[in-house]
Task: structure prediction
Amino acid sequence: MTAPLDCFFVEREDLIERYVAGDAAKASLSQEQLAAFEEHYFGCPVCFEKLQAARAAREAMLTVGASSRRTAWIGWAAAAMVVVTSASAWYLLRPAGAPASHVTAKRPPATVPLELAKIDPPRYDAVELRGSESPADARFRGAMKAYTAARYQDAAAQLSAISSHAPSQFFAAASQLMAGNTDAAIAALQAVPPESPFAEESKWLLAKAWLGRNEPDKAKPILDALSAGGGDFAAAAARLREQLKQWEAGR
Ligand SMILES: [Zn+2]
Result:
């Protein structure tokens, strides 16, 4: 079974670049990632367009046969990304076999800039527990090995099976987010109760998840509340809120 990807994940993981960059880069993608990506771009005009542009750029680069291939590739790719920004250009690049639904697909409204939606995995420091460790603590510690190894899909599955354990609940949600399962992450983050020691960080991730979903109007009230709350994430929330304002003003 493959997890559904979203555009944010595609961009964050450089999936398009890795997909077209040749066998070595493609081999760094698992079969599961490849299948999920292919499923995504066939249904997503935005990623489909970028993929076509990246392919065209790569072909152009190979034709030129530049001595410094990597440099040339980056240059061509950047140029192509800039040029192919309209739906009509996408239409022209679309292969004859593309499903009809792509032809009528409309470009979505302006997308929240990637740097505003970007997420760093929440920090986990394995703390030496003194005294007795509960069975849930022990399972949590085991599951967090997957988390620290960036095996987020695995971590999410293990952590969400540990019930009534606040750290597991939070890191399960964070793992979903890092794995690109944004909808599942949003649901899990919304379920973190206000009395959880992770309540504030959950709100922060929730705001980020909404930005990744291109729903800034849902992120804004969360950021405002965090900013007014004066906690650990107040300053970061205020800064992000300001960046959102500037982006909206310049749109
Ligand atoms: Zn996409």
User: Anything to note?
Assistant: The chain has two domains: 7-108, 115-250. Residues 89 and 170 are 43 Å apart (CA to CA). Confidence is low (pLDDT under 50) at residues 66-76, 79-108.
